[in-house]
Amino acid sequence: MMIDRLVYRSHAVGILPEIALDRIFQSSVPNNARSNITGSLGYCGQSYIQLLEGPASAIDELVGVLLADPRHTGLRILLRGFSERRLLPSWSMARVDLAKITPEVETLLDNEDGLGLIALMSTLAHEGMTR
């Protein structure tokens, strides 16, 4: 069965991302588990970066919710495609620490390198660079 994979970036509004993430995770982890969505989320400066994997219909529904979320703006999908397997099958939402590698993340964001961000987000989750 094919799964949908998507990576996006958006810009934080209001509360600083490092503070907002606690609230986001409180709702995202159980919601994603119910929707069979896995992935990872982190921030770099004022940008959120999120990798999502799951059924296309669930990803579409979540993107609609994200577009209406007032905690961020300017959501831009950097890459979307299908895969035969998940990169993060055990994480309804891994919280990756992008602050330790800010220059690398900024380069990927500047280049809108969705594939590079997917690789980075999944690698960090697997290496335990979570918070």
Task: Explain briefly what this protein structure is.
Helices cover 41% and strands 30% of the residues.
CATH architecture group name: 2-Layer Sandwich
Amount of beta strand: 25-35%
Element-level helix/strand string: EHEEHEEHH
Helix percentage range: 40-55%
Principal-axes geometry comes out as: globular
- The CATH topology, please? Alpha-Beta Plaits
Overall pLDDT metric: 92
Which CATH top level class fits? Alpha Beta
In which order are the strands of the major sheet placed?
4-1-3-2-5
Uncertain spans: none
Span of the ends, CA to CA: 31 Å
Radius of gyration: 13 Å
Give a quick account of the main beta sheet: strands, pairing sense, barrel closure. Answer: 5 strands, mixed
SSE class: alpha+beta
Helix run count: 4
How many domains? The number is 1
Description:
The protein has helices at residues 17-35, 56-68, 102-110, 114-126, and strands spanning 3-12, 38-44, 47-54, 72-83, 94-95. A hairpin with a 2-residue loop joins strand 2 and strand 3 (47-54). It is of the alpha+beta class and 131 residues long. Helix content is 41%, strand content 30%. It contains 4 helices and 5 strands, in the order βαββαββαα. It has a single domain (3-126), classed as Alpha-Beta Plaits (2-Layer Sandwich), CATH 3.30.70.100. A 5-stranded mixed beta sheet has the order 4-1-3-2-5, with helices on both faces. The model has no long low-confidence stretch (mean pLDDT 92).
